[in-house]
């Protein structure tokens, strides 16, 4: 029974020393002197503020992408004990002692370091030689721009890491497909492909393009499997379901989980939640939640309410009125009704309160029991302070002459009768008998007499002149019959009116509510709203000193000064290895030309290279050229401020293409021993130049040693580069 003890237990482990050495070198190149400089470097000023908000659990919205990348940066701060107390307002500002600089920069640096062994393994899985794989890894290792970008609290290195991990995982899965389908390792690499794709998309939406590329490649491979007569129908169905689970369902679930964690962590109100709906704001601790806690849920006749415009552009605002009237004549000579002004006011104010009145009754208080207002009911809206009725009529609005003026009616005893009946239409109703609910219901107020819809003017900056206190215009929109958020309002603050006398009512309007009704949103409701805001909320792009066009990136005609020492000439720049960038462009051109040549020749039944070499050439191109294209070409369609670092994911794929082309040239075009020897010597000389350029520019990659003015001028290899020279 104990016979197995007669022999020793032996564990055999294979260690790829190339992989170990490359990993160590990658870690050294990215982690060395990571805390230097101890100052805010370029976009750290942008991402740092989000890290601080995570530390303080304060909600924010970043229109640049999903939250996963921000959470990883915040994880570094959390591991370092960061309390979030730092003012991220200036590039170059010295970090205070409470900021764990090394921890904040650690995860991007680790991701950048691991890209080196990933590059090696990708070429090995593509069936290229270990020499070519080693060359690809060393090119990534010695690429100055990738080093610079990975040594600071930035997201590009993390994005590139997950992209390369997704590529490697799929290649390993595909290679196992031939002999180990549905094995443990087969499942592991397939699922890891989906996980890595989801993480790439979760860091930046640019990861979506590589995800689509991998889905296309997986679809093509499965299409070939369908033609395999050795596979049964059941086996094909199982393969299809496995891919659907790993490459679609799991990534979607993970993407949702990023937002779930994000929303769970950020439960406190902050400056960014003002762009969200009232329901979303009320779900956060503090802020609007403190004001709306305990409000009545159902709007009834006699309710006192504030109406917030759902659009929130150009800023959030509430339906508002005050005692001032429209001028008899506007600056352009057009006449007005001279009625009381109605505007959309971007601040909380007692003049934002309105009373929902039953047109058939005079009372302005809620009856017992309350009579709720439902979809389709006709109401009058009485301004709480001035007691005048919301009104519109066939008079042109002050800034939008195609629309009707909205006012609070003043009886001047002239031929302009009151038209103050409004029909409540609940846009997000589930049935035609839905009750108008506080915060939750989005309503349109349709004028009964003219069918005009109450609307916050859609013009950006459509604020009234001095006579309207620069408040935003409100109109009755006559022409549009479609749904637009500027026509939709929701009740934000709400109380049941109890005072019939005006003086008592004014006191009541200033008092807090008492009833306790919960308005918690579901996760999916919050996710949908936040996702929509991220996709549609665009900050106004401004020209930046270091912004560039996508065409500038290929030839590296631009650079970015990341940091300058306040007293010495030490500085850090985002500058690539010139030899590597030029070689990557040449490799892409050679690959394209050779591929076209081979295709034309193959069309003529002339096969210059063996079939297995051709398949290897095509598959490598699909990954590398395809990866470059999907990470670069979309920028020509984007209307946003672009920087050189946006090119780095595409550049990474171009770099992987260099040793692929070199091996192909050496194996198939250099046929004689002499040519092979000369070619090898040229490759060694070329790689030496790559290392020389890396060393030359390392002072502006790492920020030290400090260079003299003459040395800095010598680094300006292109007139378009902005190397900072201090005046003597």
Automatic annotation (TrEMBL):
<dbReference type="Pfam" id="PF02815">
    <property type="entry name" value="MIR"/>
</dbReference>
<keyword id="KW-0812">Transmembrane</keyword>
<feature type="transmembrane region" description="Helical">
    <location>
        <begin position="642"/>
        <end position="662"/>
    </location>
</feature>
<keyword id="KW-0677">Repeat</keyword>
<feature type="transmembrane region" description="Helical">
    <location>
        <begin position="240"/>
        <end position="261"/>
    </location>
</feature>
<feature type="transmembrane region" description="Helical">
    <location>
        <begin position="578"/>
        <end position="600"/>
    </location>
</feature>
<feature type="transmembrane region" description="Helical">
    <location>
        <begin position="100"/>
        <end position="120"/>
    </location>
</feature>
<dbReference type="InterPro" id="IPR003342">
    <property type="entry name" value="ArnT-like_N"/>
</dbReference>
<dbReference type="InterPro" id="IPR032421">
    <property type="entry name" value="PMT_4TMC"/>
</dbReference>
<feature type="transmembrane region" description="Helical">
    <location>
        <begin position="9"/>
        <end position="32"/>
    </location>
</feature>
<feature type="transmembrane region" description="Helical">
    <location>
        <begin position="674"/>
        <end position="694"/>
    </location>
</feature>
<feature type="transmembrane region" description="Helical">
    <location>
        <begin position="612"/>
        <end position="630"/>
    </location>
</feature>
<keyword id="KW-1133">Transmembrane helix</keyword>
<dbReference type="GO" id="GO:0004169">
    <property type="term" value="F:dolichyl-phosphate-mannose-protein mannosyltransferase activity"/>
</dbReference>
<dbReference type="InterPro" id="IPR036300">
    <property type="entry name" value="MIR_dom_sf"/>
</dbReference>
<keyword id="KW-0808">Transferase</keyword>
<comment type="similarity">
    <text>Belongs to the glycosyltransferase 39 family.</text>
</comment>
<feature type="transmembrane region" description="Helical">
    <location>
        <begin position="68"/>
        <end position="88"/>
    </location>
</feature>
<feature type="transmembrane region" description="Helical">
    <location>
        <begin position="186"/>
        <end position="219"/>
    </location>
</feature>
<dbReference type="InterPro" id="IPR016093">
    <property type="entry name" value="MIR_motif"/>
</dbReference>
<dbReference type="Pfam" id="PF16192">
    <property type="entry name" value="PMT_4TMC"/>
</dbReference>
<dbReference type="InterPro" id="IPR027005">
    <property type="entry name" value="PMT-like"/>
</dbReference>
<keyword id="KW-0472">Membrane</keyword>
<feature type="domain" description="MIR">
    <location>
        <begin position="370"/>
        <end position="427"/>
    </location>
</feature>
<keyword id="KW-0256">Endoplasmic reticulum</keyword>
<feature type="domain" description="MIR">
    <location>
        <begin position="296"/>
        <end position="359"/>
    </location>
</feature>
<protein>
    <recommendedName>
        <fullName>Protein O-mannosyl-transferase 1</fullName>
        <ecNumber>2.4.1.109</ecNumber>
    </recommendedName>
</protein>
<keyword id="KW-0328">Glycosyltransferase</keyword>
<feature type="transmembrane region" description="Helical">
    <location>
        <begin position="154"/>
        <end position="174"/>
    </location>
</feature>
<dbReference type="GO" id="GO:0005789">
    <property type="term" value="C:endoplasmic reticulum membrane"/>
</dbReference>
<comment type="pathway">
    <text>Protein modification; protein glycosylation.</text>
</comment>
<dbReference type="Pfam" id="PF02366">
    <property type="entry name" value="PMT"/>
</dbReference>
């Amino acid at each position: 029974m104990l016979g197995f003890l007669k022999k020793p237990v032996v564990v055999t482990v294979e260690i790829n020393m190339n992989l170990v050495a490359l990993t160590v070198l990658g870690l050294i190149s990215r982690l060395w002197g990571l805390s230097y400089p101890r100052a805010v470097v370029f976009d750290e000023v942008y991402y740092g503020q989000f890290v601080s908000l995570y530390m303080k659990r304060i909600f924010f919205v970043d229109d640049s992408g999903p939250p996963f990348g921000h959470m990883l940066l915040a994880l570094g701060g959390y591991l370092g004990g960061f309390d979030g107390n730092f003012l991220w307002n200036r590039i170059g500002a010295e970090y205070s002692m409470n900021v764990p600089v090394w921890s904040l920069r650690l995860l991007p640096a680790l991701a950048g370091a691991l890209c080196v062994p990933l590059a090696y393994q990708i070429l090995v899985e593509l069936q290229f030689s270990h020499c070519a794989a080693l060359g690809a890894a060393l090119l990534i290792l010695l690429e100055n721009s990738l080093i610079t970008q990975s040594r600071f609290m930035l997201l590009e290195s993390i994005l590139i890491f997950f992209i390369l991990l997704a590529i490697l995982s799929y290649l390993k899965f595909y290679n196992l497909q031939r002999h180990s389908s549905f094995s443990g390792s087969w499942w592991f690499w397939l699922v890891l492909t989906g996980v890595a794709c989801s993480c790439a998309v979760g860091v930046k939406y640019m990861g979506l393009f590589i995800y689509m590329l991998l889905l296309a490649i997986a679809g093509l491979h499965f299409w070939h499997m369908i033609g395999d007569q050795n596979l049964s129908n059941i086996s094909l169905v199982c393969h299809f379901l496995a891919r659907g689970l790993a490459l679609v369902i799991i990534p979607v679930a993970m993407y949702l989980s990023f937002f779930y964690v994000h929303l769970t962590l950020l439960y406190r109100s902050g400056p960014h939640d003002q762009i969200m709906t009232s329901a979303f704001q009320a779900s956060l601790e503090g802020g609007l939640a403190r004001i709306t806690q305990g409000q009545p849920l159902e709007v009834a006749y006699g309710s006192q309410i504030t109406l917030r415009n759902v659009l929130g552009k150009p800023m959030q605002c509430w339906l508002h009125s005050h005692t001032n009237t429209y001028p008899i004549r506007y600056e352009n000579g057009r006449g007005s009704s001279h009625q009381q002004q109605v505007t959309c006011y971007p601040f909380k104010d007692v003049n934002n309160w309105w009373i929902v009145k039953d047109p058939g009754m005079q009372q302005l208080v809620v009856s017992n029991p309350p009579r709720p207002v439902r979809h389709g009911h006709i109401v009058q809206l009485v301004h709480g302070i001035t007691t005048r009725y919301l009104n519109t009529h066939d008079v042109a609005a002050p800034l939008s002459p195609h629309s009707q003026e909205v006012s609070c009616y003043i009886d001047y005893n002239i031929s302009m009768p009151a038209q103050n009946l409004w029909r409540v239409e609940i846009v997000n109703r589930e049935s035609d008998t839905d009750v108008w609910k506080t915060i939750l219901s989005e309503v349109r107020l349709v004028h009964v007499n003219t069918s005009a819809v109450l609307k916050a003017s859609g013009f950006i900056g459509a604020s009234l002149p001095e006579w309207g206190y620069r408040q935003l215009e409100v109109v009755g929109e006559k022409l549009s019959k479609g749904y637009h958020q500027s026509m939709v309002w929701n009740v934000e603050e709400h109380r049941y009116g109890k005072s019939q006398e005006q003086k008592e009512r004014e006191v009541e309007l200033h008092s807090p509510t008492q009833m306790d009704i919960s308005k918690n949103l579901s996760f999916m409701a919050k996710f949908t709203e936040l996702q929509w805001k991220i996709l549609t909320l665009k900050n106004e792009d401004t020209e930046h000193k270091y912004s560039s066009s996508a065409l500038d990136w290929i030839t590296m005609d631009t650079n970015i000064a990341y940091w300058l020492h306040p007293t010495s000439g030490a500085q850090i720049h985002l500058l690539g290895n010139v030899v590597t960038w030029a070689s990557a462009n040449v490799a892409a051109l050679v690959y394209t030309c050779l591929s076209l040549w081979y295709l034309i020749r193959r069309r003529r039944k002339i096969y210059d290279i063996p079939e297995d070499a051709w398949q290897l050439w095509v598959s490598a191109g699909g990954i590398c050229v395809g990866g470059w294209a999907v990470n670069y070409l979309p920028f020509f369609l984007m209307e946003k401020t672009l920087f050189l670092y946006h090119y780095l994911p595409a550049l990474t794929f171009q770099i992987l293409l260099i040793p692929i082309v070199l091996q192909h040239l050496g194996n198939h075009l250099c046929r004689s021993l002499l040519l092979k020897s000369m070619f090898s010597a040229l490759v060694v000389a070329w790689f030496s130049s790559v290392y020389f350029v890396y060393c030359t520019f390392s002072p502006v990659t790492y920020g030290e040693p400090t260079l003299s003015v003459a040395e800095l001028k010598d680094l300006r290899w292109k007139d378009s580069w902005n190397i900072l020279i201090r005046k003597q």
